[in-house]
Amino acid sequence: MISTMQKPVCLIDTGMDGILRVKQKALDILQQIQNPVVVVGVVGLYRTGKSYLMNQLAGKQTGFALGSTIESKTKGIWMWCVPHPSKAGHTLVLLDTEGLGDIQKGDSKHDTKIFSLAVLLSSTLIYNSRGTIDNKAIEELQFVTEISEHIKFKSSDEVGDSAHFVKFFPTFIWAVRDFTLELKLDNKCTTEDEYLELALQLKTGTSKITTEYNLPRECIRNYFPSRKCFVFPFPTNPENLTALDHLESSDLLSNFLEKSREFCDFVFHESPVKKLQDGQTVNARGELC
Ligand SMILES: Nc1nc2c(ncn2[C@@H]2O[C@H](COP(=O)(O)OP(=O)(O)OP(=O)(O)O)[C@@H](O)[C@H]2O)c(=O)[nH]1
Ligand SMILES: [Mg+2]
After folding, report:
1. Is residue 97 in contact with ligand 1, taking CB distance under 6 Å?
2. Structural domains of the chain, ranges and CATH numbers in brackets
3. 236, 200, 231: which is closest to 215 by C-alpha?
4. Alpha-carbon span 232 to 15, nearest angstrom
5. Does the pLDDT value for residue 1 go beyond 50?
C-alpha cells in the first residue's frame, strides 16, 4: 500500500455546511497500515511555507500543493503516508493543515478546530512561523489557549486539563522560517532552543496585561513540556521564492539545505510513535501494536 501512495490525499475537509468530515478514501488507506505510526503534523499561519516543509520531510520536491499567490492554498487536513526513513517497520504519516488566520476566511473557530485536530492526531507537532519569535508570533498561537474548549475528557478525576493533555500531546517543534538575525544575546551565542525558551518566559505580576502576556506562554509550557526550535534562513534568492517546488537543490542556499537536513534528521530520529492516553502504541487502524 505505502509504495503506491505517490501523493497526499485529503484526510479531513470542510463541507458546505462548515462541518469538518473525514474522507473515506483516506480512512481506507489508514485501514491498511498495520505498522506503528509516527504522525508528524504542521500548523501555522497561512502562506508561511508549511506545505513546502512537509515535502522536505517526505523527501520529495512536490507532493503537498504549494501556492505562490496571496490566496491560501491548503484546505482542511491532507495526509501522506510513507515508509519511515529511519525506523524499519514503521510508517511516517505526514499531516499538512489549512493555514490559520486567513483574513478572507475570517473564522477563528474553524481555525481552532483544525489546530486542535492536528494536536490530537500528531505525535510531533510543528508550529511554523515566519520572521522572529516575538510577542506577535506568540499571540498568533492563540489557538493553544482555546484547546481546552475543544478537547474534553470522559473522566471524573480532579486533575486539571493540562495534566491529561501532556500524557498524549505531541512533541512540539517551532520552525521559524526566513530568520535573518544572529542568535546572540549579551554578545554570547545562544542556541535555537534557548531562543524559544526565552520567548516563553513568564512575567511576574497579576495585572491584566501580564496575565494576557503569560496565558499563551503558560499553555505552551504546560501542554508541551517537550519543545524544540529550528530557525531556517531564506531558502534561496528572492526572485526564486515563488517557484521553490521547481528548483533543484543546487538552486537552494547551502545554509538552508544544512538546516533542512538537521531538521529532518531530528524529526526522523526523535519523533515518537503515536501512543494512546495510557501510553500504548497504536497503528493507523487504532489497534494496539
Ligand atoms: N520566503 C520563503 N518562502 C517560502 C519558504 N517556503 C516556501 N515558500 C514559498 O512561500 C509560498 C507559500 O508556500 P506554501 O508551502 O504553499 O505555504 P503554506 O503555509 O502551506 O500556505 P497555505 O497552505 O496557504 O497555508 C510558496 O510560493 C513557496 O514557494 C521559505 O522558507 N521562505
Ligand atoms: Mg499549504
Report:
1. no
2. 2-270 (3.40.50.300)
3. 200
4. 35
5. no
